Structures are given as structure tokens and as C-alpha cells.
Amino acid sequence: MQENLKRSRPKKKSVARSKLDPVQRFKQRRAQREPFQPPNWSSWSKRQAEIDTSIAKTLSSAAKSSAKLAVIAEKKIVALERLAEFQRLAANNQIMCTNVEVLNEVAREYLMLQKRRIIRDLRQQEQEIESAQAVTMAMDPELISLAEKDADAPSVALEEELEGV
Questions:
Q1: 61 phi, psi to nearest 5 deg
Q2: What is the DSSP letter of 1?
């Protein structure tokens, strides 16, 4: 089988090499080429003009795109600056809200303390009045009857005012 495969392959033909030196071979190859013809300058300049126009259009388009990108970048910068300003204001508002909450709490505590102090002062004054009345009543029984009349007097005057209304 191997022998059949070997036989079915075509034999390679040996390529005859010329015994020319490299300079001669170069000259021979050059002679086989078509002779150089100068370019048709009118078609060449027309093509060059088309290329230049295409390049100019491309550059113009790139400049427009670049200008658009610059405008977009500027808008984004302005938007980021606004965002930063809004975030700064929001942070300030949050701080102010926190400060207001703290101030409200401090004010509430202060009012509670004031209320307690006023209540304490009123109780103290009430006790002083009661002790002064007790001392006064203990001194003179006639004053006791006057004190009872005075105690009734405000309520009588109040009743008279209410009846007049």
C-alpha cells in the first residue's frame, strides 16, 4: 500500500538554474519589466485634489465633533459644579437642621427648667404667704375675721364682674 501511495505522487521536476551571476540576473529581470511611464499629471493632480478634499472634510468633521465634545464636557463640568453646590447646600441644610433640632431640644430643656424654677418660686412664695398669714392670725383674732372677709372679697368681685358681662 505504501508503494502505491509513493507511485501515485507526481515526481517533482527539478528546476534548472541558470548559471548567471546575480548582476546578470538583475539586469535580465529589469529588461522583462514594462518600461517606466511618467504619471498622467492631470489625473494625478485631480486625484490629489480629491484626497485633499476628503482630508479637509474629515478634519472639519473631526473639528466639529471635537467642538461638540468640548461643549458637552463644559456642560458636564457646569453640571458637576452645580451638583457640588447643591450637595454643599444640602450638607449645610442638614447641619442647620441638626443645629435647629439641637437648639429646639436645648430650648425645651431650658423652658422645662424655667417652668420648674417658676413653680418652685411660686410654691416658695405660697409657703411664705401661708406662714406670714399664720403668724398674723396667731397674733390677732380680729385680723382672722378680716382675712376671711378679704378671702371672700376677690370671689365676690369676680362674681359681680361676671354678672355684668
A1: -60, -45
A2: -
The top-scoring range by mean pLDDT among 34-38, 78-82, 103-107, 125-129 is 78-82
pLDDT at 120 over 70: yes
- Looking at beta carbons, which pairs linking 62-67 to residues 24 or more positions away fall under 8 Å? none
Say if CB 20 and CB 28 are below 8 A apart: yes
Q: Which three cell numbers stand for residue 98?
A: 441638626
DSSP per-residue letters across 26-68: HHHHHHHSPPP----HHHHHHHHHHHHHHHHHHHHHHHHHHHH
Q: Which of 16-20, 87-91, 94-98, 147-151 has the highest mean pLDDT?
A: 87-91
Length of the chain: 165
The reported pLDDT for the residue numbered 154 is: 53
Is the pLDDT higher at 163 or at 25?
A: 25
| φ, ψ dihedrals at 36, nearest 5° | -70, 130
